[in-house]
Amino acid sequence: VWPTMGADGLIVWPSGEDALTIRVYTIRALDVAEGWLDIDFVLHPGTETPAATFAQNARVGDIIGMIGPGGGGLPEASNLLLLGDDTALPAIGRMLEELAPSARAEAFIEVDGPQDRVALAAGENIAVRWLYRHGREAGRAGLLPEALRECARLPCPDDLYVWAGCEFADFREIRRIARKEWGLPRDRHLVTAYWRRGVRGEDGAGEE
User: Fold this and answer.
1) For the chain, where are the alpha helices, taking DSSP H only?
2) Does domain 79-207 have CATH number 3.30.70.1530?
3) At what angle do helices 143-152 and 168-176 cross, to 10 degrees?
4) What is the pLDDT of residues 17-49, one digit of tens each?
C-alpha cells in the first residue's frame, strides 16, 4: 500500500498493518541524465534490519518508494572539520568529493578496523584520520568526542565549521564540546544523531 495525496495536498501515510518501513539515507552519487543513484547500506551481520535485508536480497525490477531530498548540501565554509562513524561515511564521502579546491577539510571517521575503511577523495586540502574501535561496541567507544576534544585544546579557527553524524551519545557530547568549549554559534556547526543504541528506525535520529 503506497501513500496517497490528501485533499489538502499533503501526503497521507498508510497506518496500522499497512504502515510502511521508512529509513533516511544519504544519496552517495547521482546521475539524473542516466537515471541512477547510489546509496550505501551498512550491513549488520547476525541482525535483521529492514534496509540491510532489502539491500542483500534486492533484485533488478524490485520497487521501492523514495521521497526527498530532505537534507542540506555541503556547508558553505572554507575550513571544515568532519566527524562521523560508519553511518556517516556516505555523507562525509560526498562532502569531500564536492569540496572546493580553495577550501580544506579534516575528517575523523570511526570504524571497527582497517578492513572497514573505504576509498575517499584525496588531495592536499584533505586530511582523513581513521579511528578504530577494535571490537568495542559501536556507539560506546567515544572516539569521536575524544578526537574533537583534542582539537578543542587549540584555539578555534575563525573560519571553522564543524559537521558530525554519529550515535546519539556521541552526538550530545560533540554538540556540547562545539558549543561550550569552543563557543561555536549555531551557524558554524551541524551535529546529527544518525542513530541511537537500542532504538530502531527514525526515532533514534536527531539534529541540532
Assistant:
1) 50-57, 89-97, 143-152, 168-176
2) no
3) 10
4) 888 888 888 888 888 899 888 888 877 666 777
